[in-house]
Amino acid sequence: MAISPRYTREIPHRYRLEAQQFECGAVTLPNRYICPDNCCKKSKKITLKGKGKILTYTIIYIASDQYTRATPFAVAVIETEEGARLTAQVVDCNFDDLKIGAKVELIFRKIMEEGASGIINYGYKAILV
Amino acid sequence: MREVAIIGVGMTKFGELWGQGIRDVFAEAALKAIEDAGVDKIDSLYVGCMSSGLYAYQEHLGSVCADYIGQKGIPAARVESACASGGTSVRAAFMEVASGMSDIVMAGGVEKMWDVEDGTFVLATASDQEYEAYSGVTFPGLYAMMARAYMEKYKLTREELAQVPIKNHKHAVHNPNAQYPFELDLKGVLSSSMVADPLRLMDCSPITDGAAAVILCPLDKAKKYTKHPVKIRAVGAATGPIALHDHVDMTKLDAVRIAGERAYKMAQLKPNDISFVEVHDCFSIAEVIVAEELGFFKYGKAGKAIANGEATYGSKIVINPSGGLKAKGHPVGATGVAQIIECVEQLSGKAGKRQVKNAKYGMAQNMGGSGGSCVVHILEAV
Lengths: 129, 382
Description:
The structure holds two protein chains of two kinds. By secondary structure, chain A is mainly β. Chain A has two helices and eight strands, in the order ααββββββββ. Chain A has helices at residues 4-8, 11-16; strands spanning 18-22, 27-28, 43-47, 51-60, 73-80, 85-90, 103-114, 119-128. In chain A, strand 1 and strand 2 (27-28) form a beta hairpin. Chain B is an alpha/beta fold. Chain B has two domains: 4-118 and 207-222, Thiolase/Chalcone synthase (Peroxisomal Thiolase, Chain A, domain 1, 3-Layer(aba) Sandwich), CATH 3.40.47; 128-202 and 233-381, Thiolase/Chalcone synthase (Peroxisomal Thiolase, Chain A, domain 1, 3-Layer(aba) Sandwich). Chain B contains 14 helices and twelve strands. Chain B has helices at residues 22-37, 52-56, 61-68, 85-98, 119-124, 139-154, 158-172, 186-190, 219-222, 254-267, 284-293, 302-307, 324-328, 332-347; strands at residues 4-11, 44-48, 76-79, 105-112, 194-197, 199-200, 209-218, 230-239, 276-278, 318-319, 361-368, 373-381. In chain B, the strands form two sheets. Chain B has a ten-stranded mixed β-sheet with strand order 3-2-4-7-1-8-12-11-9-10, sandwiched between helices. A two-stranded antiparallel sheet of chain B has the order 5-6. In chain B, helix 4 (85-98) crosses helix 14. The two termini of chain B are 18 Å apart. The A-B interface holds A 1-2, 6, 10, 14, 29-30, 36, 55-67, 70, 73, 75-78, 85-89, 95, 100, 111-112, 121, 123, 125 and B 117-118, 120-121, 124, 128, 130-138, 140-141, 144-146, 148-149, 152, 193-199, 241, 243-246, 250.
């Protein structure tokens, strides 16, 4: 569940793929105060182009309640061209076409509806290119 | 630092404990441990538990548990490190005794998992909630992605991977506390329902209620309480990235390697010295990768070695004599403590038909999330 304030503060990353590039070169999404290897704190904001490749993937058959309606669905670990790593669903594809190394593009999609009022949560998913 | 021994153990049967709430489950195990140790009071208590709040709507477990085992007045606290909460509890108790702060300390662990409807959601809170769980990936899904990467890189077949749960179920047949003490065959694994491709239901540890507790005291006082104390020779703990996607290599678990190295260094021992190891086989692939990170097999070799029967009785190393998480059950917070109990039973010669012969050193490896944390203990028969 993604309770509204928690959801809202992630919007720059989830809607616009705003990420961060540290002096050492590490690219992270979401933001961090210090690079993952504890070597530098200085960074600049970058926007990911949304292109990348699959490092590994699975097809989820049993999901948590919020996502059950979507099963089966594919999820992959993706590395973007800028070097950012993220986890996203891979949609609009035949599962047989998924493979490690396959090129993908991130697109803006609905993720789920939340709570009794059905607030729609958005974010990125991937398609094969 | 003082040397530390375990002088008493207690656990519930693992399974579906519909008649007991979280406090009852814990108290049953803890009171057995107190009786086993022959102490009437303890100085301090740690309770490992991943998510009593989401599973049982009960926080403040230190107080609940101390109260319901008749020990109110003592200091007590819950410790949490997802699925490594139990091992973390034992480590905390170890530090308290080793430091000289207390003499008789209980390390317990408990999880009451059957009372909630959406357990898949609760378990996924051990991953990165905003950047993994938000995508819909589940815990089995994260390990499935490790399995996919490993199987492709090292050409491990689906049939070979199935030998991990098959072996663990075989071991569990002789464990009276196991949730599923029955044998499993290849067809049973490969025809079980798909959870997260390529992992099927029989690759996954189950939903389990249960508790476990051990009592620690300084080694030089241990003989006062028991004829067969077991020494905690070393402990190593480490953290790793919270998100699987931040692992440099999807086929490795850095936190396990680091925790293992720390434990070996403190113990002044090598993998060759260890006779058996209880590993955190939350999923079949986890046992394979962990066995490599702990140095029992080279990278890329453990899957095929386990399939070849090199991790069972008669081998150089016996992996999961208890049946592991898969067959013994996995009440998350209790698991790490139950692994220690298996080590104690093995090293004091009380493991019955599961007994690993001539075991001098045993190891327990408890892991949180997709490798976000890990605790490794090395125990010694004294």
